[in-house]
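User: Sequence recovery, please. Input:
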């Protein structure tokens, strides 16, 4: 996460990288599923107090008994029960809507799988350092199954301190940066996945508790079965710094900016992550040089 990796080849995309790149999300569309859990295994394999992740066959549509005989692991995402919830009521997992009894359960997903969640929390730590003066935009497909009583989505952009194993609100070391709540038109329960997004801009100087944190996503499931559905997450970070090469902030580009940049780089400071990929590499030096050559407005 804070590793400094030197990359020796390739110089593509540096100009746009200074303006901001997608923040990588593991398994953003829930298309990757791993082995079934062994009998009696309670964790989703992602660490911490995980809950089972079911396949479509474990979600009874229109009533029935939950069958955990075929749970899967969804790489990149971690889950747990809500603090006030009962473990026996947790449902979080992957659906294949085309297999749900021929019912017009949900439409408009990307790929085969969609994430369904109820009475549980789910989250992901991108491992990308939070940067100052940067606009983060989180987008997703959200839908509510037909004939349902649920009517909104709720999720957060979060900052995660080093060493936190569960990237979820309510955990020590996890700070909510922005809450996104969305109310689909017409009450929502129409079985149609729609695109939503919201943004948050970090301050020019990060407050102490946020320095060294990484950016993450937190989801809250509904109280229904399996009613709130998510797919295809995207997260972008766009630097609002008009002159990123003026590292010492004196309004001019001098050799002192190079020295200041090198100091930030050596200290593992997120401000040196000029290409915004979450790690400090040779590409950040190249991005600095690019920005330096481009000059200040
Ligand atoms: Ca998908
Ligand atoms: Ca300067
Ligand atoms: Ca970088």
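Assistant: Recovered sequence (297 residues):
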């Amino acid at each position: 996460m804070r590793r400094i990796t030197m990359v020796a080849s390739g110089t593509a995309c540096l100009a746009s990288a200074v303006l901001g790149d997608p923040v990588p999300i593991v398994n953003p569309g829930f298309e990757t599923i791993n082995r079934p859990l062994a009998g009696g295994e309670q964790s989703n394999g992602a660490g911490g107090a995980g809950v089972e992740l079911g396949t479509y066959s474990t979600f009874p549509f229109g009533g029935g008994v939950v069958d955990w005989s075929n749970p899967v692991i969804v790489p990149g995402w971690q889950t747990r029960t809500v603090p006030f919830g009962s473990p026996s009521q947790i449902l979080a997992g992957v659906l294949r809507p085309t297999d749900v009894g021929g019912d017009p359960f949900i439409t408009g997903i990307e790929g085969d799988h969609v994430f369904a969640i109820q009475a549980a929390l789910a989250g992901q730590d991108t491992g990308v350092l939070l940067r100052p003066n940067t606009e983060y935009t989180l987008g997703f497909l959200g839908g509510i199954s037909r004939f349902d009583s649920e009517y909104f989505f709720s999720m957060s952009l979060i900052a995660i301190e080093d060493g936190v194993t569960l990237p979820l609100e309510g955990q020590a070391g996890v700070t909510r940066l922005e809450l996104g709540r969305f109310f689909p038109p017409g009450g929502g329960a129409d079985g149609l996945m729609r695109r939503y997004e919201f943004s948050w801009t970090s301050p020019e100087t990060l407050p102490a508790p946020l320095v060294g944190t990484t950016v993450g996503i937190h989801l809250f499931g509904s109280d229904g079965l399996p009613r709130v559905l998510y797919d295809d997450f995207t997260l972008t970070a766009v630097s609002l710094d008009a002159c990123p090469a003026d590292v010492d902030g004196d309004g001019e580009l001098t050799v002192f900016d190079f020295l200041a940049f090198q100091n930030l780089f050596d200290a593992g400071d997120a401000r040196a992550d000029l290409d915004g990929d979450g790690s400090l590499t040779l590409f950040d030096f190249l991005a600095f040089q690019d920005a330096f050559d481009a000059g200040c407005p």
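Residues 22-239 form a domain with the Jelly Rolls fold (CATH 2.60.120.260).
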